[in-house]
């Protein structure tokens, strides 16, 4: 064979559990003399994640730099939100470095405990004088250095618990009551606690994660669609009997109506104005007008609108593509784990992929006016301590799954 052709050595390696062999490129000799070994982890995934984080830091500063001009934030400095955001990122990175060292077998064993802790925190946040109220919602537990939001932990906890549940109930996938009812009860209990805050956006994300893992885990399709229909009907009834949420839906359908333009449709109309002003290449970094006290929550829920105004269609499209690639890569790592008979790790990865992709989709849809306004941040980018922390912890778990997958394919141990 010509020296210019790649000669693959060690094409077959032990599966790791003694059950057979898997095709794997252990080392490849390019030109016949220099071996190129597999990466220990997915460096491209890490690069995309940090690119999103870096852009988020820049845009959070840009979106919040003028806030001290508002009497509501008169006691804050121009860099207050930037410093808090960077501090949260530092804590999140340290936590991610710790989590990536923990084997997935540990997370599988502790999944029910983590879910129980999340439920306890969801109860504690509702206790007066403990939970912090912001904009009529009691969602945060003050920790001094950070306001922790238990619903963010609940998103990770449900991904772990649902994956663990499917592994334990694998033999009951075709039986509706045995396979689905306990999981529905768990999600319903979380939903009751979240609606007491209220935080409907988080409940929708958590329910979607649970449904997605059940479906990917092999639950009968008819059962899946029945359960999805029950959840959708429940949300519809909630909207019907809640005047505030119903008005948000009506405002979304006609935001320019004078009845809503200065009320429930105010954020949406100014988000659309920001997107329109950005055109193709944007007004330039720092040149947003809508962030100057016109667009509420510009550094959190509506950060993408500021990106659209300052960086234009090109900036928004770049963010969308990076989230699409990241979500697709997470799903690929999950499928790879399942192919290696690591069902818990694979389903957990796919649950995290659903979380990141679906929440990003909702936030982008709200900013672009194609979905009703919901209080969901843009993962990895929007200002928020506990959200960034749990995003990084979840992605560290995905990276750990990837590392263990590669170790198994090289004939080692996870």
UniProtKB/TrEMBL annotation:
GO terms for molecular function: lipid-linked peptidoglycan transporter activity; peptidoglycan glycosyltransferase activity. Its EC number is 2.4.99.28. Keywords: Cell cycle, Cell division, Cell inner membrane, Cell membrane, Cell shape, Cell wall biogenesis/degradation, Glycosyltransferase, Membrane, Peptidoglycan synthesis, Transferase, Transmembrane, Transmembrane helix. Pfam families: FTSW_RODA_SPOVE. PROSITE patterns: FTSW_RODA_SPOVE (PS00428). The chain crosses the membrane at residues 45-67, 88-107, 113-131, 176-194, 200-217, 224-241, 302-327, 339-362, 382-403. Pathway: Cell wall biogenesis; peptidoglycan biosynthesis. The gene is ftsW. The keyword Cell cycle applies. GO terms for biological process: cell wall organization; FtsZ-dependent cytokinesis; peptidoglycan biosynthetic process; regulation of cell shape. Peptidoglycan polymerase that is essential for cell division. InterPro entries: Cell_cycle_FtsW-rel_CS, FtsW, FtsW/RodA. It is found in: Cell inner membrane; Cell membrane. GO terms for cellular component: cell division site; plasma membrane. Its main location: membrane. This is Probable peptidoglycan glycosyltransferase FtsW. It is a multi-pass membrane protein. It is an enzyme of class 2 (transferase). Belongs to the SEDS family. FtsW subfamily. It comes from Rubrivivax rivuli. It catalyses: [GlcNAc-(1->4)-Mur2Ac(oyl-L-Ala-gamma-D-Glu-L-Lys-D-Ala-D-Ala)](n)-di-trans,octa-cis-undecaprenyl diphosphate + beta-D-GlcNAc-(1->4)-Mur2Ac(oyl-L-Ala-gamma-D-Glu-L-Lys-D-Ala-D-Ala)-di-trans,octa-cis-undecaprenyl diphosphate = [GlcNAc-(1->4)-Mur2Ac(oyl-L-Ala-gamma-D-Glu-L-Lys-D-Ala-D-Ala)](n+1)-di-trans,octa-cis-undecaprenyl diphosphate + di-trans,octa-cis-undecaprenyl diphosphate + H(+).
């Amino acid at each position: 064979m010509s020296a210019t052709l790649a000669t693959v050595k060690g094409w077959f390696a032990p599966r790791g559990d003694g059950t057979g062999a898997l095709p794997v490129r252990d080392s490849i000799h390019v030109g016949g003399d220099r071996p190129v070994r597999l990466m220990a982890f997915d460096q491209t995934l890490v690069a995309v994640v940090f690119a999103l984080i870096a852009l988020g830091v820049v845009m959070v500063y840009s979106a919040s730099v003028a806030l001290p001009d508002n009497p509501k934030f008169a006691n804050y400095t121009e860099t207050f939100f930037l410093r808090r955001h960077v501090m949260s990122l530092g804590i999140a990175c340290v936590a991610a470095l710790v989590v990536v060292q923990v084997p997935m077998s540990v997370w599988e064993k502790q999944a029910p405990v983590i879910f129980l802790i999340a439920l306890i925190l969801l109860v504690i946040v509702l206790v007066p004088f403990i939970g912090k109220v912001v904009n009529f919602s009691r969602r945060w537990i003050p920790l001094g250095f950070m306001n922790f939001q238990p619903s963010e932990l609940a998103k990770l906890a449900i991904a772990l618990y649902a994956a663990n549940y499917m592994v334990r109930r694998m033999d009951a996938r075709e039986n509706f009551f045995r396979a689905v009812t306990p999981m529905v009860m768990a999600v319903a209990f979380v939903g009751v606690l979240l609606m007491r805050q209220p935080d409907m956006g988080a409940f929708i994300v958590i329910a979607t994660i649970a449904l997605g893992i059940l479906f990917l885990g092999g639950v009968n399709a008819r059962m899946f669609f029945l359960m999805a229909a029950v959840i959708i009907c429940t949300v519809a009834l909630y909207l019907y009997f809640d005047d505030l949420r119903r008005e948000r839906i009506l405002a979304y359908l006609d935001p320019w109506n004078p009845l809503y333009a200065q009320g429930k449709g105010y954020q949406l109309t100014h988000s659309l104005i920001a997107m329109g002003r950005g055109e193709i290449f944007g007004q330039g970094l720092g040149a947003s007008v809508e962030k100057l006290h016109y667009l509420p929550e510009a550094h959190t829920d509506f950060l993408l609108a500021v990106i659209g105004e300052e960086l234009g269609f090109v900036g928004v499209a770049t963010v969308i593509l990076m989230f699409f690639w990241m979500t697709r890569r997470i799903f690929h790592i999950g499928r790879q784990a399942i192919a290696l008979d690591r069902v818990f790790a694979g389903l957990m990865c796919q649950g995290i992929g659903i979380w990141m992709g679906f929440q990003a989709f909702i936030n982008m849809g709200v900013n672009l006016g194609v979905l009703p306004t919901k209080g969901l941040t843009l993962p990895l980018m929007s200002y928020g301590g506990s959200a960034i922390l749990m995003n990084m912890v979840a992605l560290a778990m995905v990276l750990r799954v990837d590392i263990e997958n590669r170790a198994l394919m090289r004939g080692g141990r996870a």
